[in-house]
């Protein structure tokens, strides 16, 4: 039951903010898994609940107004310790069925649906003696348009595929190893190498890594490739999404033992960067991570449930490089503003629908008189402290501003403009760069400029003339 929540909000550059930007809500954790679906074909969402302590599955039919009918239960068996539940069509009758993992009985169970909110008794499929299945999913892994089952087993350190032929039972079971003492906790399903076949990502809690098992689309998987999550990290959950807006699959992982969440950026070929971790707070013990656009800004965010602090976190991302303070974007009444770039002189010109034509004609008339050249200064060897910004010569301010505008206009690349206090912070950051990096160290200007993926966010339109 959820009483409290925290959130991590993203900006599309693959980064996350520090813990102080988290919002915290209280949660009471119980061993219950919940899934939602329309189970009786009335157009309203219903709930299916795996009751670990009750050894049953509960069905709560929804009324469409946030309330539900009294729970109807279906037994999974005494001591079965039903752990996880998922919903899908497992017999191609276009009616939702229920799949559960029976952790205590080394099996998965299927309840076939009648389409009216009622279900058959459980059909059991063993997963191996002592396997302790902890998670399962329903997908088509052999491209035959029939739903198959994938199961991760905590105790037997493997992933199994249950493939279905034209008959109802699952006749083929294939096992894929994940490493001795890997103690799998969770998995995610996605195409991470852009071959249109499903791949499996697992959290190897016992070996402090995540594993990638690339799929061939015929019911077989490539040998696991692992990525370290840190000594003592004990990863418990993984999720897949595009966190840096490059249209490639990235991975988020909740590291219970390290009190952090990590991001591994994908290269589109099934390989990933080393992990970048973000703290969730001392003794938070993050146990589960999920991704969605929680603030409707078209960028994926992360929600992390913390077992230790009994909270959920949703965290905002940071912009730019490690040198940069937070900055603002140019918006008027929450609407991004339009700019044009002159291909000839690289001047950035604002426009409005009422004045755009006249303004562009005026600029064209004076374009030949404008000369802009790249700055010849390649490093910063001195600086002005932010505490005395008034002593910064106006000429230097102008040159830095022009250099920044040249950077974002270069080669017609998409851009954003910082403004108000954000623009002031940007300038002062550059002027005190020597202090940031130590007085004896020279700082490359390129290190201070935002990354292109940062300055290309939220552009309405870019025109050339």
From TrEMBL:
Keywords: Signal. Coiled coil: none annotated. Pfam families: DBD_Tnp_Hermes (PF10683), FG-GAP_3 (PF13517). It comes from the Eukaryota. Gene3D superfamilies: 2.30.30.100, Integrin alpha, N-terminal, Zinc finger, BED domain-containing. Residues 391-454 form the Hermes trasposase DNA-binding domain. PANTHER family: SENSOR KINASE-RELATED. This is Hermes trasposase DNA-binding domain-containing protein. It comes from Rotaria socialis.
